[in-house]
Amino acid sequence: MYERLLVPLDGSEVAEVVLPFAESLAGPLDLQITLVRVVEPLRHVPAEGAYLVNYNQVLVEQEKEARAYLEEVQGRLQRRGLKAAAEVRTGLPAEVILEVAAERKADVIAMCTHGRTGLKRLLFGSVAQQVLSRSPLPVLLVRMPEGMGD
User: Cα(137)–Cα(98) distance, rounded to whole angstroms?
Assistant: First the structure.
């Protein structure tokens, strides 16, 4: 029935809370896990007089770091006997997660919520909420443990 599981990670310890749940699904069901990390484009252009950096260079460096991170997580999963692939993309997280899910023909998306509340959630929104509300696939959301990420 299910063959492919998409697991978005942002490089944080909080996001990795989903991994034990993903492993517990993937192992017995022999699912292919696709890890995805989204590198967001810079949102703010430096103001006049600010230190200017090469945008492309920054993006390439972020993608390189994201790839190294995912390869490390992929290796951990593979050493446990799981089938895992990794993909780094640039864009808006919720949009990219849904694009990769469609392209990879994922059957389920599993991700952690960061537990933002109040003003932070209003200002920044929730990637998990956006994915949940827009995904045609089942989405497994794992709540961030209390006290984590403070």
Answer: 9
Query: What domain range is 67 assigned to?
Result: 4-143
Is 149 a member of any domain? no
Cα 114 to Cα 148: distance, rounded to the nearest angstrom: 9
Look up residue 136 and give its DSSP letter.
S
The pLDDT of residue 53 is above 70: no
Model confidence pLDDT, tens digit, residues 109-134: 999 987 555 554 544 458 988 999 99
Domain for residue 78, yes or no?
yes
| Residues in CB range of 100: below 8 A, 6 or more apart | 6, 34, 36, 87, 89, 106
Q: What integer pLDDT is reported at residue 149 of this predicted model?
A: 54
